[in-house]
Amino acid sequence: MNTPQEEIAHKSIMKTASRKLAESDTKLKRLIDIFGPPELGRGGDPYQALVRSIISQQISWKAARAIRERFLALFPDTEFPSPQVLAQASPAEIRQAGLSQRKSEYVVGIAQAFSDPDFLGNDMDDLSDEDVSARLTSIRGVGQWTADMFMIFTLARLDILPLNDQGIKNGLKAFFKLDHHPDPAEMLVLTEHWKPYRSVASWYMWKVVDEDFQWDED
């Protein structure tokens, strides 16, 4: 849980990022004026965030919520099992919550990694984006997409461009009026002028898709 001071500071950073992006891209400014500052929070327990992310992958939010509730019910003595407790569970036990064999193995693997207090260190803000990504993807089942979402929505890193996210590709296709979905190399070129706030710009690309935003004819 963030302190009120941290929340104020984070909102100020988001407003600054939006203003800088608006200055660098007049078309993006239209989205910023319409949708306002991005709703990108910061905080939450990193270990819990990753476990929840794995549980929720590739299923509907309704199914994910039901599985999360059954998962937590497996550990009635705590709000959320500690890494040390979950690391001792067998995938067969975790499957009782409705997770697949593979996902059950993945969440136990995350717990085993986070059982080491030095896995991400005492202050993740001291780690570069590349270091955080490398450590997370060293866990079986945690790919680059999951690492990117973690850095954006848990750590509030400002300059993450999720190259493997279909929503971002769809948003960039619409935003730049392409006749194709851009590949990673093209995505990097197209968004170069959004640095160092590509996480924030990505939020607006998601909004373009989620809100089915229709561009006026130029």
Structure description:
With 218 residues, the protein is mainly alpha-helical. The chain has two domains: 4-41 and 161-210, Orthogonal Bundle (Endonuclease Iii, domain 2); 46-153, Endonuclease III, domain 1. It is 59% helix and 0% strand. It has twelve helices and no strands. It has helices at 4-24, 26-35, 46-56, 61-73, 83-87, 91-95, 101-114, 129-137, 144-153, 166-175, 184-190, 198-210. α3 (46-56) packs antiparallel against α7, α8 (129-137) packs across α9 and α10 (166-175) packs across α12. The termini are far apart. The model has no long low-confidence stretch (mean pLDDT 91).
Round the Cα radius of gyration to an integer and report it: 19 Å
H/E order of the elements? HHHHHHHHHHHH
How would a crystallographer describe the biggest sheet?
A: none
User: Quick one: CATH class of the largest domain?
Assistant: Mainly Alpha
Q: Based on the structure given, which CATH architecture of the largest domain is correct?
A: Orthogonal Bundle
Distance between the termini: 44 Å
Q: How would you describe the shape? A: globular
Q: CATH superfamily of the largest domain, called what?
A: Hypothetical protein, domain 2
Oligomeric state of the chains in view: single chain
Which class of secondary structure composition applies to the elements?
Answer: mainly alpha
Helix content: 55-70%
Q: What is the arithmetic mean of pLDDT?
A: 91
Could you name the CATH topology of the largest domain? Endonuclease III, domain 1
Strand content: under 5%
Strand tally: 0
- DSSP helix count? 12
- Which regions are unreliable across 5 or more consecutive residues at pLDDT < 50? none
Q: What is the total domain count? A: 2
